[in-house]
Hints:
The complex is a heterodimer of chains A (236) and B (336).
Chain A: H1 2-23, H2 27-47, H3 51-75, H4 80-83, H5 87-111, H6 118-122, H7 135-146, H8 148-169, H9 181-186, H10 189-192
Helix pairs in contact in A: 1-2, 2-3, 7-8
Chain B: H1 2-6, H2 8-44, H3 60-70, H4 81-97, H5 116-137, H6 141-172, H7 177-182, H8 194-207, H9 219-222, H10 232-257, H11 268-272, H12 275-296, H13 302-331
Helix pairs in contact in B: 2-10, 2-12, 3-10, 4-5, 4-10, 5-6, 6-8, 6-13, 8-10, 8-13, 10-12
Amino acid sequence: MLAAIAFYVFAAVLVASAAMVVTARNPVHSVLFLILAFFNAAGLFLIAGAEFLAMILVIVYVGAVAVLFLFVVMMLDVDFARLREGFQRYAPIGFAVGLVLFLELAFVLWAWTPAPEAGGLRMHPQPGAEAGLSNTEALARVLYTDNVLLFQAAGVILLIAMIGAIVLTLRERPGTRRQVIAAQLARVPGETVVLRQVPTGAGLKDLGILRPPLPPAEEPEALPEPEHHGHGGGHH
Amino acid sequence: MDAFLASPAGQVAITFAHALAILVPLLIAVAYVTWAERKVLAAMQLRKGPNVVGPFGLLQPFADALKAIFKETIIPAGANRVLFLIAPMITVTLALIAWAVIPVADGWAAADINVGILYLFAISSLGVYGIIIAGWASNSKYAFLGALRSAAQMVSYEVSIGFVLVTVLLWAGSLNLNEIVRAQERVWFFIPLFPMFVVFFISALAETNRAPFDLPEGESELVAGFFVEYSTIGFTLFFLGEYANIVLMSAMTTILFMGGWQPPVHVEPFTWIPGVVWFILKTLFFVFLFIWVRATFPRYRYDQLMRLGWKVFLPLSLFWLIVTAALLKLTGWLPA
């Protein structure tokens, strides 16, 4: 009884929030409704006994993908008036495309007859349940044992996509100074600090450090000219 | 009585009782963690800390809570009211519901579910929502910058936490937290997995936005970061959520690496002490570490934080995962 109530609650909220995703005016609200929809889908998975899928849905989609969506959408400054400008003009084309897709789906469904053994399989969605495996173990067996090559191939495809994205966005910017942690840690006092005995009032002429500083009027020629970039009110 | 407990209403009543049995001690613990943090920081800085309200300042957390609750609630004019009010609730709810699966002693968990560790990982990865929604709904640039930093930071460190969890799972052979603790009967996992233990603890600091990774609230550049516009109860809830998360992360470290409720050695004087006491002692040790770190280290620069997460922890945890898997496979120690 509790499971039935939970199912209808999750399903109703899922459908309602999915509708809100496409109708909400504010894109941030859309993303938040999308997150709510993910949550309720995870709840439906839980009721169906697929707790592993439920948790993965929350971790991957809600915990990572939707965070990045929200991250991007929050930073956009969407102008709603401009978005709605072309709505009247493009609405007929949109409806036509939607109608074609809907008719195609309807034809597929109409011509579709389930395989005779499908009805039996539907009652045992979990392979290995009769062997006492939890659904996490059953999924792992399908993915990592039975179909390991397909799984690896999927991984390689994702890796290629990732490398492609990096190659497309990586650019060398000349002139940037990067922090090289290894170089910083490799510094030793012997290379960077020199201890010298300085006679009082003499300064270090060979390094251009004079002490006490002379009055600005008679600045010596020996000092290397510091570069000024236009700011500061010097006497130059 | 038995018939009532078996009925749906009875099940609901039992669940409520479970929830209360966890939440009441937890909330008291959270109140005293705030007190302990002030006392420990004070001791490390040669001060006294709270010592006026009650003996040793023990009633200070309640005085603070009352003060915060009875102040005036201010909602900024430009804020998105609904989201502004929801954000602190999300934070505190997520910090509390994670405790449903924490086994505080052998089998003592409100929900002893098969995928307990994934549940914890999912909940901890959701914690970022309270922060980004708060930052966006406040309609303030400091809050928003804090929220953006937090989102990037938490997503980055989750990746290495995920790999650390997988490494632990390889040793334990189960996603159930009880089973993970039982797998540590002979040796606590922090011994074979010491580098992962360190990575996990540092990532836990970053996940909870604690010093030295408290950039989302970096008060020197962002005033107070994502909760700068919050006052009274909203602020209190964020505060509560932060400390509940600290206790949660400490409990997770205890379960994953320090043998949960298990005594250090299974010999006489140690086995007399009940498991829940061991669990609490270990958790408190990590809470103390959190505070100690805050008193010791200066805040990271943002690019260094990202570098540590992506260029140091991620390769390290990936490498250690492969080493662990190879070792377990070659030695035949892989749990069935």
